[in-house]
Amino acid sequence: MSLDEIAELRRRLSEAEDTIRAIHQGDVDALVVGELSNPQVFDIGGGADAYHAFMEVMNVGAVAVDQTGRILYANANMNAVLGVTQNSVQGTLFSDVAQAPVAEAIQRLLVPPLVGPVSTEVEFDRNGERVHYVLAATPLRLSTTLGVAVTFTDVTEQVRAQAAEQNERAARAVIASANEAVLVCDRNGVITHANTASHAVFDGDPLGLTFAQAVPLVFPNATGLMQSEDIVQMAVQGTPVQGVEAHAPNAPKAKDYLVSAAPLQIGNDAISGCVVTMVDLSQRKAAEKQQLLMMRELDHRVKNTLALVQSIASRTLHHEDTLEGFQKAFTGRIQALAATHNLLAENSWTNLTIEDVVLSELAPYTSGVSGRLVVHDLGHSLSPRAAIALGLVLHELATNATKYGALSVPGGKVSVREYVETAAQPDRFVIEWQESGGPVVTPPTRKGFGQTVIARSLQYAPAGGAEVDFAPEGLVCRISVPIEDMAGQ
Amino acid sequence: MSELTHPKKLTLYVAGQTPKSLAAIANLKSITEQHMPGQYEIEVIDLRQNPKLAKEHSIVAIPTLVRELPVPIRKIIGDLSDVEKVLVSLKVQGE
Fold first, then answer.
1. Does A6 touch chain B if contact means CB atoms closer than 8 Å?
2. By residue range, what is the domain housing residue A215?
3. What is the three-class DSSP state of B31?
4. pTM over 0.80, yes/no
5. Is the minimum CB–CB distance between B75 and chain A shorter than 8 Å?
6. Does A140 touch chain B (CB under 8 A)?
C-alpha cells in the first residue's frame, strides 16, 4: 500500500469519524441512506411536511423559529401579519424581516430555558395602522433542532374596543362628577344622558324626553322668541351657545341658571347631538341683590348725613356771632358726627352699645385725667340712627361742661348711667348725664343752638327727646331713647 | 493565478427545508459575504430533489459543506453556526 493510499484511508477515516460525531451531536437533521445506486434522503425525527401542513390550517399567524430566531417556517397568515411573502422569510432571521418591536418580542420568547407555553404582547404600525398581537410560544423540537412555535393572534379590535369602552367610562365619570347639571341630547333634542346634578333642573328621570319638555327655559335678556329648543337646535347645527342667563320655572330648587350648549362630535363623525350644561346662578343672583340693597342703603345714609350737616351748618351760623365762633362750633359738631360714623363703620353699621358712643364722644375731653368720667354699666345697644343723635347730644353736653360746667374746673366730674323709667307711660329708656364738682350752675340767659340740638336730636320719634335740669350743684340731662331704637326691645 | 481571478466553488448539500438546511444556507452566505467576499462561489444541492447527487462527494449526513479545491478536499458537517470552525476549515495554510 502506497503512502498516498494510506493518506487517503486516513482522510476517509477522519471523515467517517466527523460524520458519526455530527450525528451524535445533533448537528445534522437528514441522512442519505440506501444503495449507492438508489440513495434516499431520510429526515431524522420525521419530515417537516407534517408540521407545515398543520401550521397552514391554523387561522392565526404561526411561525416556527430556531433558538437563534431564524424562521424555519411561517404560514400564510403569518406572512400577512408581517406583510411579506413566504419566499422572503424562510431561513431568515426574524430581526431581518420583522419590525423591531416584533423581533424584540420574539427574542423575549426565546430566552432559555424554553419551557412551557409563554406569551407576550406586541404592538406595531402596519400600513400606517396601529395593530396589536398576542404572541404565544411553545417549545418545539424539529428533528435535531430545538425551537419554538409562535402563534400571532390579532387582538387589535379587542384593544380598540377596550380603549373605546375605557374612554366611554371616563367620559361618563367626567359627566357624572360635574357639579353643574349636564344633559346630553341626540340630534332630535331627546335627552340620552343626564348626570346626578341635573336633578336640580328636573325632578325625575329626564331620559327619553326632549330637552324642551324636561327643562322649559325663559330667557329674560332675550325676546320671547328664544326658547329651550332653540339653544339645542343651534348646538346641533354646529353653533355653540355660551353662557346665556335663563330662568327655569319648572326646576325644583334654584330657578336661575347660566346655560351653555355645545355640539357633540365624536371623532371625525358628524355632529351626533349636543351637550347642555346649566350652572346654578341663584347664589350669584342673591349676592347681586344684596349688593344693590346695600348701595341703596348707602345712598340713603349719605343723603341723610348731608341733610344733617347742612342743618348743623345753617343753625350754627344762626347762633354764632363771629366767624371764628362758627368755625369752632361747626367743626366740633362735625367731628362729633364723624366719631359716631367711624364707630358705625367699624361695626359694619350694626348696633352700638351706649358705652361705645359715650366713650368715643367724650374721649377728647376726658383723656389723660382719670376720674373725670364715670360710666355705670352702659351695655344696652342702640340703632345707628339713635347712636348718631346721641353722639350729637353728648358732644353739646361735653362742650358746655368744658366751657361752664364740671369739666371747666379741676375735680369736677361727669357720670353717665342708664335706667328704665316706669313712672311714665309707656316706659321710657333714659340715659342720665349728671355733672358734679363744678361751679354753681345758673340757667343760661340765652338759648343757644346747643340746647336745640340737645332737645331735638332724638325727637324724630314721639318717645325720644332730652330735658336739661340746671340744678345749682350740677347740670343734669335726661336723654330719652325711642324704645324702638333699643336693640332687642 | 486562475485561483485568484476565479472564485473557488463551495458545494452545500441540503435536504429541502429542514431546520439545519435553512440555517446552513443562511450561515454560509453570511460567512462568505462577511469574511471572504468574492473568493467563493456557492452551489446549493438539494438532495431531496436529486438524491443521486450525494454520490459524487459520498455525502451521508445533511447538511454538509464540501470544498474541493484547493486539495485536499474538505467537508464540514452541520449548520455552520460555528463561524470560527468554518473559517479554520476553509482557510488552508498559505492562503
1. no
2. 178-280
3. helix
4. no
5. yes
6. no
